[in-house]
């Protein structure tokens, strides 16, 4: 019973990751690229200690500048002030910018697909082995 639930949950996560993949590909198809420059490092006080996250100034094709704060931080800082990075954004919503890296674009797709494959292998493997073991 539990392995059947594992298999079903794995299939649901697989479909969710494929849906997110299609949304990411649509976003990439309709997006524009821009260069962002690190203007500062924001100090975050955490239970693990002090960490730094980069703050980017991104200039769009319309010469509109907006600020993007990276979602992750590190200690020591992994970015230096003045470094450049490529971003993709929806021209209608420049605040929807994402760092143009493989994991920056497809992060949730990768995570959900890895979990779903694991769950489907465990669930389907048990279901198949159960059928074969009954014959002996």
Explain the overall architecture.
- The structure is a single chain.
- This protein has 136 residues and is an alpha+beta fold.
- The chain has one domain.
- Helices cover 46% and strands 33% of the residues.
- It contains two helices and five strands; from the N terminus they run αβββββα.
- It has a five-stranded antiparallel β-sheet, covered by helices on one side.
- A hairpin with a 2-residue loop joins strand 4 (84-90) and strand 5.
- The longest helix is centred in the last third of the chain and has 33 residues, at 102-134.
- It is elongated and about 70 Å long.
- It starts with a helix and ends with a helix.
Per DSSP E runs of 2 or more residues, the count of β-strands stands at 5
Q: β content, as a range?
A: 25-35%
| Total number of helices | 2
- In helices, the fraction of residues equals 40-55%
What structural class do the secondary elements suggest? alpha+beta
The major pleated sheet works out as: 5 strands, antiparallel
What's the end-to-end separation, in Å? Answer: 21 Å
Q: From N to C, what is the helix and strand string?
A: HEEEEEH
| Shape summary | elongated
For the biggest β-sheet, the strand order reads 3-2-1-4-5
């Amino acid at each position: 019973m539990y392995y059947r639930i594992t298999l079903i949950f794995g299939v649901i996560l697989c479909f969710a990751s494929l849906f997110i993949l299609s949304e990411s590909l649509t976003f990439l198809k309709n997006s524009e690229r821009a260069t962002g420059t690190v203007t500062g490092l924001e100090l975050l006080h955490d239970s693990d200690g002090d960490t730094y996250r980069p703050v980017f100034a991104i200039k769009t094709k319309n010469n509109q500048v907006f600020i993007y704060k990276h979602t992750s931080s590190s200690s020591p800082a992994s970015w230096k002030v003045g470094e450049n990075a490529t971003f993709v954004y929806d021209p209608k919503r420049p605040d929807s910018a994402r760092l143009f890296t493989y994991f920056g674009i497809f992060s949730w797709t990768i995570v959900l697909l890895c979990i779903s494959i694991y769950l489907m292998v465990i669930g389907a493997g048990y279901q198949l082995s159960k059928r074969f073991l009954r014959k002996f």
